[in-house]
Amino acid sequence: MNIESVIRRLGKYYSKSYSDEPFRVLIGTILSQRTKDENTSNACENLFSVYRTPKELANADVKRIERLIKSSGFYKVKAKRIREVSKILLEKYNGAVPNDMENLLSLPGVGRKTANCVLVYGFDKNAIPVDVHVHRISNRLGLVKTRSPEETEKGLMEKIPKKHWKKINHIFVEFGKNICSAKPKCKKCPLFECPNRKKH
User: 160: which of 60, 88, 127, 183 lies 20 to 30 Å off by Cα?
Assistant: First the structure.
């Protein structure tokens, strides 16, 4: 399938993305790991209503952080990780979130997806965060043939013009939630030439 055509057509439905402060994106993405979006939203709202900066979180009581983020699941691990990341940002980066992949990956609990989310949504940089939606849809559309998110990221970076990188995550995530889910709603899909359409 032609990726330019896919982005253009899906962009009509899912063109609006979001941006936020890098620290909020970083912490929000850590909270989003292995949970649903609504759980992440609740946890973020609770957490940032009390703690807003790396300094505040670095000095926070971990039990209180746990209570605030409990809806995100794995909250004990995430609470310790969030406080640890906040301390590192304070001590090593003067309270600022690094804006490059290497330094982001050095933070505890930060993998490529989280780092790429920070680059795209926090710094407006060209990157491709690959989550379950992006990985599934990219393979389903035949854009890549990969087994891991890391392979998908590399494959998409090779095939997609850099000017479109920032759009991919938001468009595919929304498309994955609404139509191209684990059990796809192919009758509602605007991508008629999808190679897997007949299978579903």
Answer: 183
Low-confidence ranges of the chain (pLDDT < 50): none
CATH of 3-15+128-188, one of 3.40.605.10, 1.10.1670.10, 3.40.1080.10, 3.30.70.1450: 1.10.1670.10
3-state class (DSSP) for residue 110? coil
Report the b/e string of 12-39 with b at 16+ CB within 10 A. eebeeeeeeebbbbbbbbbbbbebeeeb
Query: If you classify domain 22-122 with CATH, what class do you get?
Result: mainly alpha
**DSSP letters of 178-198?**
HTSSSS--GGG-S-TT-TTTT
Residue 156 has what pLDDT?
Answer: 97
pTM more than 0.90: yes
CA dist 28 and 121 (Å) reads 11
Within 10 angstroms of residue 95's Cβ, the number of other Cβ atoms is 14
